[in-house]
From TrEMBL:
One of its GO terms (cellular component) is Golgi membrane. This is Trichome birefringence-like N-terminal domain-containing protein. It is a single-pass type II membrane protein. Coiled coil: none annotated.
Length: 456
């Protein structure tokens, strides 16, 4: 990062890593400002970083949308706990290499895409044996590969290059776990591909899934490090928890069931959560206040999707409070992955979708009608409000992915069965405009994760 949060480092282990970092000398003016800000942050109970970072961050009311457009209900502002603000966690985040008193902050999620054929893709599709055929677009016949060669350029800094060796050293004797749905599985796979390029010997690594496919573990033997994926599309217990057979239309989650899956996350040093798309089955969502299997009518409650989502998000935070030591472990949350199923959103003829799209959307303000801003707002309000005491690093990949209508797997995928010739001939119906080709967009998500791990 040239002009980023990266200025100096005292940790010797990472000194080599910070080739680009300049040693910052603190002028009396900078020291004075820092003292002032410390006082200010003390008075207002604000985290210093939040305070400095607020410059560019839109006020949460700016996230308001035309809710009638998506037809979503506005979550009740008066709901208990909704507006209460907790004191942010004050400690130093583990793995951070930037100075605690960093005087510059960069919003790495605000920027633009730059063509970069020299450095991207970061690995080749055929070199990573762990990509499932659902995401190997080239092997499935995609004719173009321009979607692989883009670099994310934040407005105010440059991302550090992903150094797989550095990442593996950091994960030595540790476990990194991705928890969520198939999009998080894609990000997990991308991370494994990024790391395995630094482990040439096949004997030095392994990749194993549990018999029910719920839990997949990549091991870097020489580092005693694992990168894992755990299927829990709602984080809570749900009727879509079977990692293979989960095509369910009447979705439901069990209230207060975070420990059901949570017990399998214990011991992870870095957790990366996501959950979003599965909630979007309608405007309302069904909650069970009893066992899912019994599905008793009197134990079902219908609430707005946003309220249900907020409930699960808060339960996840509570699990994190109860089970993670913030001095030694880190928690990430990846924001919603946009879909491109409606070509009309970007001026295409009715019926079009991501199929045959090889260029990205240029409009910096673009937002697809099939993505719910209301859900983003729920996350932001909780993280800034009653969840502020949990140091979750928010990976805000939504807007930067919103531009990438070119990066989906479309019809170039194989899941369970290859698409039939009839399906391939009808891309308007069968194109997958949800998942992303690998290598591709999700490698950038991991470059951002990497950045935020070391420069939170
Ligand atoms: C909200 O969206 C609806 C449906 O798309 C549209 O008719 C209406 O004009 C929009 N309202 C505003 C204030 O943008
Ligand atoms: C996510 O990033 C985009 C682009 O910088 C920004 O417009 C948006 O407000 C951010 N959302 C949240 C919830 O932080
Ligand atoms: C990557 O990290 C390793 C371990 O910290 C370091 O030795 C190496 O020089 C780094 N590579 C680059 C290209 O920065
Ligand atoms: C390997 O890593 C695990 C944590 O993932 C740790 O409990 C164990 O002690 C490590 N083994 C060795 C030999 O260091
Ligand atoms: C979920 O459970 C909590 C605690 O038992 C209860 O207060 C809340 O009303 C329940 N939520 C729903 C939607 O039923
Ligand atoms: C975390 O570190 C701080 C400061 O070093 C210390 O006061 C606190 O007790 C630690 N918390 C835990 C759970 O170890
Ligand atoms: C795909 O796009 C190209 C130009 O961008 C166009 O010529 C071609 O007809 C399109 N193919 C289909 C099947 O829509």
């Amino acid at each position: 990062m040239t002009k980023a949060a990266v200025q100096s480092s005292s940790a010797p282990a990472v000194a080599a890593f910070l080739l680009v970092a300049k040693k910052a000398r603190f002028s009396p003016f900078v020291l004075l400002s820092l003292l002032f800000m410390l006082l200010f942050s003390f008075l207002y109970g604000e985290q210093l970083a939040t305070l400095i970072g607020q410059r560019d961050r839109p006020h949460s009311s700016e996230l308001d949308v035309n809710l009638s457009a998506g037809g979503h209900q506005q979550p009740a502002e008066t709901e208990a706990g909704w507006t209460s603000k907790k004191k942010p966690w004050q400690g130093r985040l583990p793995f951070a290499v930037n100075e605690e008193d960093e005087d510059e902050e960069c919003d790495v999620f605000s920027g633009s895409w730059v063509k970069d054929e020299a450095a991207h893709p970061l690995y080749r599709e055929e070199e990573c044996p762990y990509i499932p055929p659902q995401l190997t677009c080239q092997a499935q016949g995609r004719p173009d590969r321009g979607y692989q060669s883009w670099r994310w350029q934040p407005h105010d800094c440059t991302l550090p290059a992903f150094n797989a060796t550095q990442m593996l050293e950091t994960l030595r004797d540790k476990r990194m776990m991705f928890v969520g749905d198939s999009l998080n599985r894609g990000q997990f796979t991308s991370m494994v591909c990024l790391l395995q390029s630094a482990i040439p010997s096949p004997e030095a690594r392994s990749f194993e899934a549990s018999p029910d496919q719920q839990h997949t573990v990549f091991t870097a033997r020489d580092y005693n490090a694992t990168v894992e994926f755990y299927w829990a599309p709602f984080l809570l217990q749900s009727n879509a928890d079977d990692a293979v057979l989960h095509k369910i239309s009447d979705r439901t989650v069990r209230n207060g069931s975070i420990a059901h899956h949570g017990r399998h996350w214990e011991g992870a040093d870095v957790l990366v959560f996501n959950t979003y798309l599965w909630w979007c089955s309608g405007l309302r969502f069904r909650i069970m206040n009893g066992p899912i299997e019994e599905a008793k009518e009197e134990e079902m409650v219908w609430v707005s999707t946003e309220e249900a989502y907020g409930m699960a998000f808060r339960d996840m935070l509570q699990w994190v409070r109860d089970n993670m030591d913030f001095n030694s472990t880190r928690v990430f949350f990846t924001s919603m992955s946009p879909t491109h199923g409606k070509g009309q959103d970007w001026g295409d003829a009715p019926g079009g979708n991501c199929y045959n799209e090889t260029a990205m959307i240029e409009d910096a303000e673009y937002w697809g009608t099939d993505s719910r801003r209301s859900v983003m707002r729920v996350i932001r309000e909780i993280l800034d409000g009653d969840g502020a005491d949990v140091p979750v690093t928010f990976l805000n990949i939504t807007q930067l992915s919103m531009y990438r209508k070119d990066a989906h797997t479309s019809i170039y995928k194989k899941q369970w069965n290859p698409l039939t010739p009839e399906q391939i001939a009808d891309p308007r119906t069968y194109a997958d405009c949800v998942h992303w080709c690998l290598p591709g967009l999700q490698d950038t998500w991991n470059e951002l994760l990497y950045t935020k791990l070391f420069y939170p």
